[in-house]
């Protein structure tokens, strides 16, 4: 049965607000592209496409009792060349990451992927996605974000991709503390601080904000500006 999908205009992917605003770990761009391909498959299912017929022979997703079995080609994740070490590192790292969910009724935690395999001579990647995580990706009771898949896949860094997902469709300014922004971007709390624990705003701007903004300015329909608001000893970045 075809599920009801939020109405979109010139958008390729609709993703649950729960995932978009979840506190993520500092994923590499290749790890995030694997997640984007999972989201792409979720979108196809929401549109009524049978996953066994999805995207030809090299990209397959099939529901099991507990998981979704996934298959794709390395070129779906790494766009230039085929570096065995890069794809193995991405699969290994993503398999060690966890997504945590909690609401008024339940708490659970699962890996982003499990049982990753890479067939070197064919370039085929296989892994499993928990049905619980698949459900988060396809349910919109708490709202959703929409963004263009091709734009997201083309972004060069993990930070620029996270910013794009956070800002896509954003109408009003976001008043967000530096610590909270770092959580949303998957940046460790003690990173970009000096030896006394004071925030190094200049380093954060040069290594995170400015490169991410430049990437979005160049190729995406949504970007952001920011101003620094000092509240006593705390600096708040406001993204617009």
TrEMBL record:
<dbReference type="InterPro" id="IPR036388">
    <property type="entry name" value="WH-like_DNA-bd_sf"/>
</dbReference>
<dbReference type="Pfam" id="PF01051">
    <property type="entry name" value="Rep3_N"/>
</dbReference>
<dbReference type="Pfam" id="PF21205">
    <property type="entry name" value="Rep3_C"/>
</dbReference>
<protein>
    <submittedName>
        <fullName>Replication protein</fullName>
    </submittedName>
</protein>
<dbReference type="GO" id="GO:0003887">
    <property type="term" value="F:DNA-directed DNA polymerase activity"/>
</dbReference>
<dbReference type="InterPro" id="IPR000525">
    <property type="entry name" value="Initiator_Rep_WH1"/>
</dbReference>
<feature type="domain" description="Initiator Rep protein WH1">
    <location>
        <begin position="24"/>
        <end position="167"/>
    </location>
</feature>
<dbReference type="GO" id="GO:0006270">
    <property type="term" value="P:DNA replication initiation"/>
</dbReference>
<dbReference type="InterPro" id="IPR036390">
    <property type="entry name" value="WH_DNA-bd_sf"/>
</dbReference>
């Amino acid at each position: 049965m075809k599920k009801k999908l939020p109405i979109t205009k010139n958008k390729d992917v609709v993703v649950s607000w729960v995932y978009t605003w979840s506190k993520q770990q500092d994923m590499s761009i290749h790890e995030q592209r694997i997640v984007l391909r999972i989201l792409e498959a979720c979108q196809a299912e929401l549109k009524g496409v049978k996953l066994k017929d999805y995207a030809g022979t090299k990209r397959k997703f099939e529901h099991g009792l507990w998981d979704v079995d996934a298959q794709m080609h390395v070129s779906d994740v790494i766009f230039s060349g085929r570096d065995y070490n890069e794809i193995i590192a991405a699969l290994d790292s993503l398999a060690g990451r966890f997504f945590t969910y909690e609401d008024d009724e339940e708490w659970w935690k699962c890996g982003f992927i499990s049982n990753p395999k890479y067939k070197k001579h064919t370039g085929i990647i296989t892994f499993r996605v928990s049905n619980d995580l698949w459900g988060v990706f396809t349910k919109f009771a708490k709202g959703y974000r929409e963004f263009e898949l091709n734009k997201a896949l083309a972004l060069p860094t993990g930070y620029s991709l996270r910013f794009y997902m956070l800002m896509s469709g954003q109408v009003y300014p976001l008043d967000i503390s530096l610590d909270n922004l770092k959580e949303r971007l998957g940046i460790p709390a003690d990173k970009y601080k000096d030896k006394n624990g004071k925030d190094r705003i200049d380093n954060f701007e040069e290594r995170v904000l400015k490169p991410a903004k430049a990437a979005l300015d160049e190729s995406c329909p949504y970007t952001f500006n920011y101003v620094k608001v000092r509240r006593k000893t705390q600096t708040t970045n406001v993204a617009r």
